[in-house]
Amino acid sequence: MKILVPVDGSEGANRAVDYVINSLSWLKDVPQVFLLNVQWKLATGNVKLFISQDTINDYYREQGMEALTPACQRLDAAGLAYSYHISVGTPAEGIVQYAQEHGADLIVLGAHGQETLSSLLLGTVADKVARLASVPVVLVK
């Protein structure tokens, strides 16, 4: 079984990771776990005149690793192998695309992460993933 756990460094994301760890006792086989952090693409405009693309990419990596670190630490402590990836784009669409590309059987995510005001008005990332995904989605409160 392949389980995708999108993480943003929030307590909700940490609870989703804990849910996967606690599920090991009732799963038939040890799952293949994928951690994913999707960084919002920066509106760079004229910024690229002053900052290189490499610097922007470094920023995405630093922010992504900061968000991934608590989840990695939890999985390491549980002795559960995983892989991780940082992508850039719109979170809900990025999560669904990654799940499709990697053949995820299940997506487990926190019901509330680090939403912005616009996402609260337009619907949370979790709501969008649940609507868009072609695989089961477990929302962890």
Can you walk through the features of this model?
The chain is α/β, with parallel strands linked by helices and 141 residues long. 45% of the residues lie in helices and 21% in strands. The protein has five helices and five strands. Helix 3 runs parallel beside helix 5 (125-132). The two termini are 22 Å apart.
Write the layout of secondary structure elements.
Layout (H helix, E strand, L loop, with lengths): L1 E5 L4 H13 L8 E8 L13 H26 L3 E7 L2 H11 L4 E5 L6 H6 L2 H8 L4 E4 L1
Parallel strand pairs: 1-2, 1-4, 2-3, 4-5
Helix pairs in contact: 1-2, 3-5
Give a short summary of the structure.
It is built from five helices and five strands; from the N terminus they run βαβαβαβααβ.
Structural class: alpha/beta
What is the rounded Rg?
15 Å
Query: Going across the major beta sheet, what is the strand order?
Result: 3-2-1-4-5
Compressed to H and E, one letter per element, the order equals: EHEHEHEHHE
Give the uncertain stretches in residue-range form.
Answer: 117-122
**Sheet of most strands:** 5 strands, parallel
Counted by DSSP, the helix tally is 5
Query: Multimeric state of these chains?
Result: single chain
Envelope shape: globular
Helical residue percent?
40-55%
Nearest-integer average pLDDT: 89
Which band does the percent of strand residues land in? 15-25%
Give the strand tally. Answer: 5
In angstroms, what separates the terminal alpha carbons? 22 Å
Structure characteristics:
single chain; five-stranded parallel β-sheet; 21% strand; 141 residues; 5 strands; 5 helices; alpha/beta
